[in-house]
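Deliverable D2.4 — example input (structure tokens):
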């Protein structure tokens, strides 16, 4: 990437040499290899890899995203420099031809000169449109790499969700068990309080009834004796 950056910073000609093609193709090949390695690591992490490998995968994906963005930016800059140099060469050629035609008499040459100027302006406008399209393409590629990084992070989160769900389920089960135990303890305490209340309420009532029965049994013989005495006095 450093060699390609130096090549872009020093490239001013319109000719595409073999060294430039070799460097560009080599960088593209290395980026594809890094993408394949990241895909293999992603598959391994999704199948239950360690947490350390997951962090390493995230770091490698960020590095790949940065390198891809830098490569497309440098390549777009190189294409823009080549197009700018080509436009300058065309303008110099056109200026040279215009001067030659102005020196030579004839209306047909003037018409050709105007036609060439019109074609050159159209070519310049087309070059501007192409450069804008390339800039848009670079932005779309960057967005695609960004969304790819987001998808990989979401995949990492989804791979960790089963363990998180297991922990949350264990916590909910423990809370349910605590609630059941607390309900049982409260029910037993309420039942014991009710039994204690019944015991304290019924025993005094039974004692009072027994005391009344005993008093009746004691009074009844005396009442019979008094009745007999009254009957004897009445007969006399």
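Example output (designed residues):
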């Amino acid at each position: 990437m450093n060699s390609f950056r130096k090549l872009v910073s020093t490239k001013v000609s319109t000719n595409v040499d073999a060294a430039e093609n070799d460097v560009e193709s080599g960088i593209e090949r290395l980026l594809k290899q890094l993408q394949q390695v990241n895909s293999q690591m992603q598959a391994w992490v999704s199948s239950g890899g360690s947490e350390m490998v997951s962090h390493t995968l995230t770091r490698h994906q960020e590095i790949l995203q940065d390198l891809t963005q830098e490569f497309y930016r440098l390549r777009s800059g190189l294409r823009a420099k080549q197009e700018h140099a080509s436009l300058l060469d065309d303008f110099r050629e056109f200026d040279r031809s215009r001067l030659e035609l102005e020196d030579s008499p004839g209306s047909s040459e003037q018409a050709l000169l105007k036609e060439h100027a019109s074609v050159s302006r159209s070519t310049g406008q087309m070059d501007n449109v192409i450069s804008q399209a390339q800039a848009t393409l670079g932005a779309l590629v960057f967005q695609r790499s960004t969304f790819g990084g987001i998808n990989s992070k979401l995949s990492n989160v989804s791979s960790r969700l089963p363990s998180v769900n297991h922990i949350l389920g264990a916590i909910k089960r423990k809370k349910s068990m605590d609630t059941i135990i607390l309900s049982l303890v409260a029910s037993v305490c309420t039942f014991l309080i009710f039994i204690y209340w019944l015991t304290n309420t019924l025993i005094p009532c039974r004692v009072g009834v027994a005391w009344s029965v005993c008093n009746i049994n004691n009074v009844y013989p005396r009442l019979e004796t008094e009745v007999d005495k009254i009957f004897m006095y009445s007969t006399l």
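The chain has one domain: 2-179.
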